[in-house]
Amino acid sequence: xxxxxxEGVDTIPKEKRTRGFLQVFVIWAGFSIxxxxxxxxxxxxxxxxxxxxxxxxxxxxxxGGVVYLGTRIATTEGTAGTTAMRAPFGIxxxxxxxxxxxxxxxxxxxxxxxxVASSAQEILANFGIxxxxxxxxxxxxVLMASVAVFGYEWIEWLNKIAVPIMTILLAxxxxxxxxxxxxxxxxxxxxxxxAALNVFPAATAAYLLVSMDYGRYGDPAxxxxxxxxxxLAWVLFAIAxxxxxxxxxxxAGTWDPVQIMIELGLGSVGLLLLVAxxxxxxxxxxYAGGMAxxxxxxxxxxxxxxxxxxxxxxxxxxxIYSIGGINSFLTxxxxxxxxxxxxxxxxxxLLDRGFDADELFNKGGDYWYxxxxxxxxxxxxIVGAGFAIFTPDWTVPALSSGIVAGIIYYGLKSxxxxxxxxxxxxxxxx
Length: 430
Fold this sequence. Notes:
globular; Hydantoin permease
C-alpha cells in the first residue's frame, strides 16, 4: 500500500483499475453507515410511519440508480466525477459542478463532524467527562480528514476494518430498541409524502460525483460488478439506517440517537458507532471535495484534501450541524448540484454514448466548445436550478430539477453545437 495516492484528476491507468464487487461494496457500506441517514430517516416519520418509510425506500432506491450509473461511467472510463463533467460543461465550464461539489462535501463534512462532536460531548458527560465542543469538533475533524489525505487505498482499509464492527453494533442497537420500546408508533405531524420523498435526494445530491470518484478504480473488464457493489451497499445500509431512525423516532418520540442510546444504556456503544460511522463517511466527503478543489485549482490532490478538511472542520466548529443549518444547506445542494447530475447522465448515456477521456484535457479539442464553456450545459443548469428554487414540494425538486436540466440539455446540445461549428467555419473563412 502506497503512503500517499499519487493520482489526481487524471484518468486512472487500466493496470490500477482492479476493484470488483466486494471492494466497492465495502467502501460504500462504510459511506452509508452514518448518523445522517439515521437523522434523515427520523425526519420522514413526520409524514407517518408507513408513509415516511415508503418515501425513504423509494427515494433511496432512486438514488441507487444514480449510484449505479455513475459508478459504471467511472469504471468504464477511469475518470473522477468532476473530470467527467468536462465533457458536457466544457474544460473551463467544469468549475460549475466542481464548485457545487466543494460546497456539498465541505458542508456535509461540517454537518456530520458537528453532529458527532455534539453527541460525543453528551455521551462523555454521562461518564463524568466534560470537554468543550470546539475541541471535540476540531480533533474529530482532523482525525476524519487524515485518512482521505493518504488516498483511496487507506480509505479502503479503513472501511474493511470498520464496516464489520459497525454492522454488529447496529444489530445490537436494533435489538435493544425493539426490546425496550416495542413497535408502538405515533402519527405524523403534517409532513406530506412529497416532502418526505425529497429528504434523501436533497441530502445526497453529490452522489453521482462521489460514485465516480470511487468507481474509477473499478475493473473495466466487467463494469457491472463494481457498479452493483456500490448500488447494493448504498440501498441496503441506507434503508437499514433510515428504518432504525424511523422506528426510534416513532417509538421513543425523538430523533436524537444519543438520547436513545443513553436511555438504553448503550452510551459507549453509541459513541463508538457515531465516531466510526461518521469517520467512514467523512473520509469520502473530504476525498471527493479535495478532488473537486484540485479540479478548480490544478494543485496537488493531497494539499487540496487538507484544505477541504480544514474548511469542513471550521464549519463544524461554527455550528453548521444545527437543524436550521441543515435545512438551508440541503436547499443549496438541491439548487446547485442536482441539475449537473441530469446533464452528465443525458450527455453520456443518451447523446454521446461515452466520451473521449484524452480529449477531456485538450484545450481547443472536442470539449472546448465556446472558450472552454458549453452554453447548452450552462443554460440547462440555470434552468434546473431555477426549477429547484421556485417549484413546490410535490415536484420533488431534489429529483426533478435534475430531470428538467437533463431534458433542457438534450434539446439544446445539438443546435448550440451546430451554431458553434457555423461560427467557427465563418471565422476560418475570414
